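Researcher: Please predict.
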Amino acid sequence: MEEKIISVEMMRKSDAYTIANFVPGRELMLRAANGVYESYKEWSGKRIAIVAGGGNNGGDGYALAGILAKKGISSTVIQTSDKMSEDGKYYCDIAKELSVEMIPFTEETDLNAYDVIVDCILGTGFTGEVRGTAGTAIEAINGSNAFVISVDINSGMNGDTGEAALAVRSDLTVSIGYLKTGLVTEAAKKYIGRLVNVDIGIVLAEE
């Protein structure tokens, strides 16, 4: 069956519709993180960094850190923002209870110390040019030798067009819910190694 490809706006509406009528946002976030966990089979024995932003994309990272910790796999959450969404804070608190290491990203942060980097900085709603700490973090990820996994979309990429002034170059991108149009464009190909999509039970809103 061919996978449905939708716009960022349709994904936003469908996300809101699903949360309002069917599945709490917190549960969707956990399903997203679990989908990322299951999409990569080589977590064990790796030095893992989860680079988390301040929105729900970062929340997926905190939830993933908790999933890994419960399976006896340690990771470090590297925070590019001290903000977080309500659901993100919930999973951040769980990760802290599980003794997940959390450190702020600075220009001195050496990402070459890690084998796997999970990109949870910016989500599909991002448009424009990346600036500040997020931009510096993206450049650091791209300059590392790690295996890079982008969650939902490569940070910095336009979800509708696949274009970017600066975006994470991933070995694996795990799209959440539905593929967004930008992920399958010619422009996106230079940023994405392998692309998979995980179904987390999003119900499409009416057009």
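Model: The first strand starts at residue 5 and ends at 6.
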